[in-house]
């Protein structure tokens, strides 16, 4: 497998954590998620405008575990997603930069129908775009992704019994997001992966910031990108 950072562009993954804690700290009782959505839009536009080295961006909007949260918590996330995808459909930068948008997740079809419709619309509108890729992970979990890929690979092998050894390139075709991660950024003080892209994260550089997601800025992203470039990556060699 050819590793990223060696001529194929950077895959940046973001876990935007800390919105509810931010609202509590600000004393906002009925947080509508506006600031979180605005940060999402601001960071996306900054990456597209100022970091051409990033050719794939994956944002974890909702995990499989999040689907078990209280209805009030989920409504907040869905409100943010709905607002964000509506704005994305109207954003000229998606078309100007020819961005292909994927909405991925083994359980994303469990989300409300109106959010699913928005997701399907943005996928349909951008499916023929040839520029960079934006993955929005909804109802996504790394372990479930791997298990689903294993099942799909097993079916493929039964149809191709002459295959004696499974190459990882074949297995990766059955992942929701085949491209390995180069950088993982998690905001919100937590220092764990929580199941984010467990297969793809093998050689990713990890960055954990105490900044809560609504306060995460393009300037902080730039500093992380500078540190990433300064790090020596050997991919186990």
Task: Describe, in short, the structure shown.
The protein is an alpha/beta fold. The chain has helices at 19-25, 34-50, 71-90, 92-96, 113-126, 142-159, 168-172, 218-230, and strands at residues 10-15, 54-63, 100-104, 133-140, 183-186, 205-208. It has a single domain (10-141, 180-224), classed as Undecaprenyl pyrophosphate synthetase.
Provide key terms for this protein.
alpha/beta, globular, Undecaprenyl pyrophosphate synthetase, disordered N terminus, 237 residues
Protein described:
There is one protein chain. By secondary structure, this protein is an alpha/beta fold. The chain has one domain (10-141, 180-224): 3-Layer(aba) Sandwich (Undecaprenyl pyrophosphate synthetase), CATH 3.40.1180. 42% of the residues lie in helices and 16% in strands. The protein is built from eight helices and six strands; from the N terminus they run βααβααβαβααββα. It has helices at 19-25, 34-50, 71-90, 92-96, 113-126, 142-159, 168-172, 218-230, and strands spanning 10-15, 54-63, 100-104, 133-140, 183-186, 205-208. Strands 3-4-2-1-5-6 form a six-stranded parallel sheet, sandwiched between helices. α2 (34-50) crosses α3 and α3 runs parallel beside α5 (113-126). The longest helix is centred in the middle third of the chain and has 20 residues, at 71-90. 33% of the residues are buried. Residues 1-7 have low confidence and may be disordered.
């Amino acid at each position: 497998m050819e590793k990223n950072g060696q001529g194929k562009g950077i895959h940046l993954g973001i876990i935007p954590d800390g919105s509810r804690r931010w609202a509590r700290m600000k004393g906002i009782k009925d947080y509508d998620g506006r600031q979180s959505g605005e940060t999402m839009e601001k960071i996306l536009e900054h990456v597209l405008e100022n970091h051409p080295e990033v050719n794939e961006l994956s944002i974890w909007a909702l995990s499989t575990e999040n689907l078990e949260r209280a209805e009030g918590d989920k409504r907040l996330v869905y409100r943010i997603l709905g607002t964000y995808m509506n704005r994305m459909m109207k954003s000229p930068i998606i078309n100007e930069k020819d961005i292909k948008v994927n909405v991925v997740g083994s359980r994303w079809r469990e989300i409300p129908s109106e959010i699913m419709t928005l997701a399907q619309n943005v996928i349909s509108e951008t499916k023929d775009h040839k520029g960079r890729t934006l993955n929005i992970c909804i109802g996504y979990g790394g372990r479930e992704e791997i298990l689903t890929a294993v099942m799909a690979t097993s079916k493929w092998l039964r149809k191709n019994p002459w295959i004696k050894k499974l190459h990882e390139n074949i297995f990766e075709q059955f992942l929701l997001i085949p491209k390995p991660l180069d950088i993982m950024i998690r905001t919100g003080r937590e220092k764990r992966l929580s199941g984010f892209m467990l297969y793809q994260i093998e050689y990713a550089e990890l960055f954990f910031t105490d900044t809560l997601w609504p306060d995460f800025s393009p300037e902080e992203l730039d500093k992380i990108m500078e540190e990433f470039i300064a790090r020596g990556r050997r991919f186990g060699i």
